[in-house]
Amino acid sequence: MNKKIGLSTGLRSLVQILRGRPQVPASLADNALLQVIFNRRSVRSFTRQDIPEDVFAAILEAGRLAPSTVNLQTWSFAVFNGDTWRQTFNRSIPFHANRAIIVIADTYRDRQVLDVFPYSPLVEHTVAVMNASLAAMNMNIAAEALGVASVMLSETGRTGLLDVRYLSEKLCLPKGAVPLMTMVFGYPRWAYPPMPPKLPTDQVFFYGQYVPPQRETMETWLAQMVAGYKAGHLRSSFEDQLKVYQNKIGQAEADLREMIFNRDHNEN
Amino acid sequence: MNKKIGLSTGLRSLVQILRGRPQVPASLADNALLQVIFNRRSVRSFTRQDIPEDVFAAILEAGRLAPSTVNLQTWSFAVFNGDTWRQTFNRSIPFHANRAIIVIADTYRDRQVLDVFPYSPLVEHTVAVMNASLAAMNMNIAAEALGVASVMLSETGRTGLLDVRYLSEKLCLPKGAVPLMTMVFGYPRWAYPPMPPKLPTDQVFFYGQYVPPQRETMETWLAQMVAGYKAGHLRSSFEDQLKVYQNKIGQAEADLREMIFNRDHNEN
Fold it and tell me: Is A65–B177 a contact, with Cβ atoms under 8 angstroms apart?
């Protein structure tokens, strides 16, 4: 990673970020649901307003009804309000949000009645993560449809990506139930932030055979990531933040391997 | 798995399936966006009508703009129409759909400029699968918002879950790019099918500590899965279908492990 991104590159990058817009065909610009999908942002500042029970119930329902591989529904959701979060984690919900859901890739439940994955733990884990993430996105969009903002955090609990051991202990999860992310919900305090720097279409879509990444495009994107982070965190940097993750990632890897591969398959 | 589900259990299960409804609070029943989210179904029968370019472009854009861990956008999308699918796979898009997208968990691209995951392949894989799945769900909902139906297939290519080696060869994927699912899109030929049997809320949500699965609830659900499958596939059974997957799952596991763990981290 190139640490030296000068002031002019930084400013140019910020201008590029602020110019970022969803590329919505003009013919579809009036579609209300598309607007919700395209205007969605990760929001980290919330008002004190409570989310009404019926609204939160509808968000949860979007998780329950998400699609999944063979309809196996390999997910569980740990649901919190401010009080129950505090009882469990001894502090406020991140960003003082109103509600939280820890999304869990759960292969334990189905295994009580069905052995779809006779000793193939990596396939099973992959499928479960995929399905639980579909459910998470469905809840995110349902929230947006109801005016509720959210952010998905992969560093719940403490700093570090996928702090699976800590969360498993706190939630008393059985083996085969892997906490993936925490979604926190609330009403947004401010106007939505600018779109984070997205890779251009010719980097993420290909037609036929894989198109190798273009170094210049990727470096332009990285400069935007660095500049965008700096604009939002004057006392830190994107690189510093990555180091925080990297310092803990060895432990996360060990914990996750233990959880996925050292499960006795007959144990249930 | 209990193979013997009698006729009366089967019929009762079918009635239960047909009674399945999204549990939408009455106060929110008129929300048009929620209706789209809750009425979404996996659709496997399409008309011959082409999806217009602007509509398909908007669906793709929903993938590009999905949220991701640290905005790393660890995804690539292989995009097909009927002709290009046939050129690649020598047959029609599954279910004679109009368009297809193979969703790829891609950790190769970012690594060209950024080493977020110094040798922690399982964490990296998990994060990439999570993000690519968020993008998939965002595309699915965007399609629904535009009247386009779809289904996510984890058995693309040939039968078998996660046929990663075959698809990687066909798409010339580098190591670190794992094909996860194929989404196929088209206009629905019939009214949407009934909701597949979803687990009740008290099985998938918990408040505080994990609630172990209730065997009776899980067996009722399994009976519905068996009966529902039988009603849709007179010549096959849910159990037969699982056996098809299970016969190939050992190979899928071996291929996926090779792909995730035997990548030389300095290779890029």
Answer: no
Report the number of distinct structural domains present in chain A.
Answer: 1
Rounded CA-CA distance A144/B66 in Å is 13
- Residue of A71, A183, A209 best to disrupt the B interface, most CBs of B under 10 A: A71
Which range marks the domain in which residue A117 is found?
7-20+32-190+213-261
Query: Which token pair is B68?
Result: 């991701």
Report pLDDT digits (tens) over A102-143: 999 999 999 999 988 888 999 999 999 999 999 999 999 999
What span, in angstroms and rounded, lies between the C-alpha atoms of A37 and A60?
18
Quick check: B262 contacting A, CB < 8 Å?
no
Q: Which of A64, A78, A210 sits opposite B174 (nearest CB)?
A: A210
Contact A209, B108 (CB under 8 A): no
Residue position matching structure tokens 């066909």: B170
A162, B130 contact by CB (below 8 A):
no
B2 has a pLDDT exceeding 60: no
- What's the 3-state SS for B94-141? HHHCCEEEEEEEECCCHHHCCCCCCCCHHHHHHHHHHHHHHHHHHHHH
Closest Cβ–Cβ partner in A119, A129, A146 for B126: A129
User: ipTM of this model?
Assistant: 0.95
Whether residue A64 lies within 8 A of chain B, CB to CB, comes out as yes
Structure confidence by residue, pLDDT tens digits, B208-245: 899 999 999 999 999 999 999 988 888 889 998 888 88
DSSP B32: H
Q: Is the dihedral of CA A243, A244, A248, A249 positive or negative?
A: negative
Residue B18 lies in a domain: no
Contact at CB, A141 and B141, closer than 8 angstroms: yes
Q: Is A22 on the interface with B (CB under 8 A)?
A: yes
Residue A125, in any domain of the structure: yes
Across the interface, which of B42, B115, B208 has its CB nearest the CB of A67?
Answer: B42
CATH assignment at residue A217:
3.40.109.10
A2 in any annotated domain: no
CB B31 within 8 A of CB B77: no
pTM of the model: 0.95
Question: Nearest-CA distance from B62 to chain A in Å?
Answer: 7
